[in-house]
Amino acid sequence: MLDVSPALSGANKTLRSGIQHGMERTNRTARVVTVSAVAASLAFSTACGSVDARTSGAASAVARTTPAVQGARERVTAPGTPSPGTSSPGISSPRVAALETAARAATAPAAAPAAAPAAAAAPTAPSRCRTGALRARIGMSDAGAGQRYAPLVLTNTGSRSCWVYGFVGLIMIDGNGDALRTRTRRESVHPSRVTLRPGAGAHARLHWTVVPTGKETTCPTSARLMIIPPDEVAHLEIPFDAMVCGDGRIDVRPMEPGTRL
Known about the structure:
Elements: H1 5-47, H2 51-54, H3 56-63, H4 67-77, H5 94-107, E1 127-128, E2 134-138, E3 142-144, E4 147-156, E5 162-164, E6 169-173, E7 183-186, E8 194-196, E9 201-209, E10 221-228, E11 236-243, E12 249-252, E13 256-257
Parallel strand pairs: 1-5, 7-12
Antiparallel strand pairs: 2-4, 3-4, 4-9, 5-8, 6-10, 9-12, 9-13, 10-11
């Protein structure tokens, strides 16, 4: 009896090989068609300016094919990521614009901290009292045994505190406007700085005698007194009706706090 098993086995192998090659060609053709459809759908959606909305139908169809094709779609349709060798489409979606703005804000350099408010200016230290900010007057005098004592008061008329230090200068003037002989003698008292707030005053004690001395028979009488504040050049002038003997000698103490003796 003739043995046909080898022939049948060879025929089966040939048939299976043909069927397998045919199926591979069919699968390749189907994948090419599917990819072409996806590319066409993406190109159409991009031209219309709305990638996400227009590719949703195609994505649903492609999702049922193969994971490889789905991954290719996701890479192609990622917003803001142009394909190699192509330019990025001009997407006008408000959401994309918002994302770009947020990205720029996140990568922008941190703004410099706001400058701290300027510290309040430290109050300036009082300066020396100028003649123009002072007013002078003779306070209540004290008389006894031919001697006269009176405070010469200087008042701060300015809007800021100032200080006086030292001795005043004096010149007596008679009723005719002529200067009288005036000898200002400084007493041996150490001066100290006196700060005057606006409206406050300090005084220098004046002393003179009304008793003629030496060859004096009469003593001149002054009508006014010119006063030069300490360390100043300009002067003040006030009424000063007094008879001063001793050849016009007036003893003066340095400026002291207060307005009374």
